[in-house]
Amino acid sequence: MIPVVASTSLMDEKRRVGRVQATYLTHLIKFTNWEQSDLPSKAESAKIIMLGEDKNGIVESFRFLVSQTKMKIDGRGLEIIHLKNNLNSEAKLMLSLKPQVVFFLPESNFAVGEVKKLTPQSLLIGNGREFVVESGGDISFTSSKNRIRLVISKKAFLRKSPKLSSSISALRNVVEIVPQI
User: Fold this and answer.
1) Which of 70-79, 82-91, 104-113 is predicted most confidently?
2) CA-angle at 103, arms to 100 and 105, nearest 5°
3) What are phi and psi for residue 78, nearest 5 degrees?
4) Looking at the chain, which runs of residues are DSSP E strands?
5) Separation between Cα atoms, residue 140 and residue 155, nearest integer Å
6) Are 103 and 50 in contact (CB under 8 A)?
7) Do 108 and 131 touch, CB atoms closer than 8 A?
8) What gap in Å lies between CA 50 and CA 52, rounded to an integer?
9) At 102, is the secondary structure helix, strand, or coil?
10) Which pLDDT belongs to residue 147?
């Protein structure tokens, strides 16, 4: 019976982390600016693609937060598209639609470099410090001592679009800014 309790506790912790990441994701999007050329027409929804298996409930939590807050990007509604690991051809098609955000779930097997080539106008968010430092992503979630922190590439603050608000950099206790690669 103890392994079941331990397993349940671990699942609860993963869900908690998923909810926290979903909350951070909504705030990151609110503090990001896009050039009009990187957005769909006013009649269309902005797209957020979530890649990989969702074992932490991030997709469900994010969808809930977006619907509850009626979140928009520059006046456009949001379309959240979740693509599992085995949908590579569908993923390539969806990525060609110029999404505003691509989020690599912790269980994603999609290659950052390949996605980056398909969607250079997207904000790329993932997990683990190496996502930003080694793979060239824009933002990643890291976890240490029961706290979730953000690792952000300096390029996300310097480029024209998508551009993170400098006010995020003031959150020194949860944000680490790393040089661009």
Assistant:
1) 70-79
2) 165
3) -110, 135
4) 32-33, 46-51, 78-83, 101-104, 123-127, 139-144, 147-153, 163-164, 175-178
5) 14
6) yes
7) no
8) 7
9) strand
10) 86
Helix axes 2-30, 58-69, angle to 10 degrees: 40
Cβ pair 29, 73 in contact under 8 A: yes
Which residues have C-beta within 8 Å of that of residue 165, sequence separation ≥ 6? 31, 32, 33
Mean pLDDT on 124-146? 92
CA distances from 131 to 3, 39, 58, 140, 141 (A): 32, 25, 18, 6, 9
> Which pair of structure tokens corresponds to residue 93?
């098609």
- The 3-state DSSP class for residue 70 equals coil
Which ranges constitute the DSSP H helices of 31-161? 58-69, 88-95, 112-118, 129-133, 155-158
Q: Is residue 139 very low, low, confident or very high in pLDDT (cuts 50, 70, 90)? A: very high
